[in-house]
Amino acid sequence: MALTLFNTLGRRLEPFRALNPEEVGFYGCGPTVYNFAHIGNLRAYVTHDLLVKTLKYLGYGVKHVMNITDVGHLSGDDDSGDDKMVKSAATRGKSVLEIAEFYTKAFFDDLDRMHIARADVIPRATEHIPDMIELIGRIEKAGFTYEAGGNLYFDISRFPRYGELALLRLDELRAGARIDVDGNKRNPQDFVLWFTRSKFENQALTWDSPWGRGYPGWHIECSAMSIKYLGEQFDIHAGGIDHVPIHHTNEIAQSEAATGRQPWVRYWVHNEFLVMDKGKMSKSSGSFLTLQSLVDQGYNALDYRYFLLGGHYRSQLQFSFEALDGARNARRSLLDRIKALSDQAAVIPGAYRPGPADAASPGAASPGGISETGEEAGKALDNFKAALEDDLSSPRALAELWSLVRNPRIRAGEALAAAFAMDSVFSLGLREAALERKEASSESEESVREIEGLVAERAAAKKARDFDAADRIRDELKKRGIALEDGPGGTIWKRI
Ligand code: AMP
Ligand code: ZN
Fold it and tell me: Which letter, b or e, does each residue of 382-407 get, where b requires 16 or more Cβ atoms within 10 Å of its Cβ?
């Protein structure tokens, strides 16, 4: 089986075919940094992380881009309401840039604590204004815009495919449309590409443009920055389900209008919402939970990660502290099981690292160097892989991890090697737990790092076809009592 993803565009499960398996282009909408992320937002980023790590596990290379919105996002995605950054800065008596700086750092802290890998490129909107102006210029030249009341608008009536992603029926929408707050718009779904004069005159940051001094609408940044870093057509775009009807719908219209290429994005992946007992979590109402508030109540950030992985990303997930307690208990027993296995194992096997060999035949090999993990562990890895390939079924994949570590027929070292391979996707810190346990009797983490450094150096030498250097490193490690085993998923090391 190969990876299958549910594509919101078309609403069906589709086999994933990469434009270039060595560098899958992936864009995930990032945060607007006017406040702390709430735990619902973190569900979106854990979903992106699950997707990226699954792709890597299956042998793809990935270029992951995530934007930071620090300008232009109004409280209503449809250009209504206040500017989120300006309002937050005014309330807190700070400048917009200070606010952006503070909450971006807080966001990165959350990502680190949740073991969410950083994207390869993290562009900030305010640093890409010329790219946005250029893209808007292309849209204008192609005839999709009009100016009204000093703002430049996208004219959706010029784009017949408008709303395809969200299955919008424009005739119905128009019939039932509320009186739009922005009287400049010809159609209620038209949206601002560039603001100059409007009710948002208190915007702190403005730039010169062919349409006057002003600032960009929110949607254009994602089109401009994804095209800049991933090209005019790329593989996957993700975000929360709330982005389907407006933000992503508008991104598609802008991008395809500018480039004339279709489809701009091949697979659209949307996570369902995390919901609270008492309904929607919302920052505007001021009632939302942050990761820090969970930590303050004694939870580990990874308890929350475990909780999220226990639900399929396309199902709504109900948050409650009872459910979080359940996740905490389960994670603790998992770590206990890993520690028990490491007491039984002679050595702690090396971490799985995806190797360049994988990229040549994505999905073909079972990574993790399973030759040494025995048939039963191999079967568990196969099932784990099949679960992830089935539209990222993390709950089923977790169940496979559990049956692996509980299977008495699998030797401890083999179970650990396979569990660590799975943890390259789950990122629950299993190997760290095992190493912690072994510390007294085995080598320090420092020497493990040194060995892993040499293994990585050898992989680089092999990639550069410098086989003499690669052999030298292998011999050097052998002298230190380390054996290497090259598998389709990369190199595993063990003590001899
Ligand atoms: P924002 O910072 O508001 O642009 O949101 C960041 C990400 O979180 C977006 O991908 C949203 O779609 C997503 N999101 C917002 N609320 C929730 C929620 N309650 N559950 C899951 N994802 C959410
Ligand atoms: Zn976006």
Answer: ebbbebbbbbbbbeebbebbeebbee
